[in-house]
Amino acid sequence: MATQKIAAAPSVRRLPLYLQMVRQAQREGIQYISGTFIAHELNLKPIQVRKDLSITPITGKPKKGYPVGSLIRAIEHFLGWDTTRKAVLVGAGNLGTALLGYQNLRDHGLLMVAAFDNNPEKIGSQIHQVPVFSVETLESNILMWGVKDAILTVPSHAAQAVTEILIKGGIEGIWNFTHVKLKVPDSMVIQKEDLSSGYAMFCVRMQARQIGTDLPSSLVPEA
């Protein structure tokens, strides 16, 4: 069985940018796209683009570049966006509601089969066509459905307790939007999204711009 290369996180984060550009090229009827062109459009170095794309099952043609259709399929396959992943969301507050309605997640194969909350006004309703159930039924439902992915958007004080339920229900991966560092078995996949850290970087960059100073190279974000 073939194994997928383990890629550096910055390379993985850039792949969706490449995919967006290559899809636009396809819509414009372009058949080949070069790493140099992608690099120029995204203000990157061509060698970086080629290195990033080398983690996918794609090879370019000299003087022509990458076949657009094949490159799209290669990136989508590497990211797992060419298959459907079923997930549940726990915590149907403002952030959870926004994620349930985020079309890009659906376009990339993430199917939210249900949301869970403890608010009686939300239980039994639908948010963006996704049914909302009581958190009390979380373990039994995910066991019944065989779902392996969960998105966690509960208040931080409830994060670990809900995580324990998810573990019992057989969840194997959690996309964690809380501030809590979850305690989970080593076999689980945890992806933590810290929105406050991203906002902090934005503020520092804006302040540097306003006072006309350059950021240290360690603080310059990658494209």
Quick tags:
Arc Repressor Mutant, subunit A; 42% helix; disordered N terminus; 223 residues; alpha/beta; two-stranded antiparallel ribbon
What does this structure look like?
The protein has about 220 residues and is of the alpha/beta class. The protein folds into two domains: about 10-80, Winged helix-like DNA-binding domain superfamily/Winged helix DNA-binding domain (Arc Repressor Mutant, subunit A, Orthogonal Bundle), CATH 1.10.10; about 85-190, Rossmann fold (3-Layer(aba) Sandwich). It has helices at about 10-25, 35-40, 45-55, 70-80, 95-100, 105, 140-145, 160-170, 195-210; strands at about 30-35, 65, 85-90, 110-115, 125, 130-135, 150, 175, 190. The longest helix has 19 residues, at about 10-25.
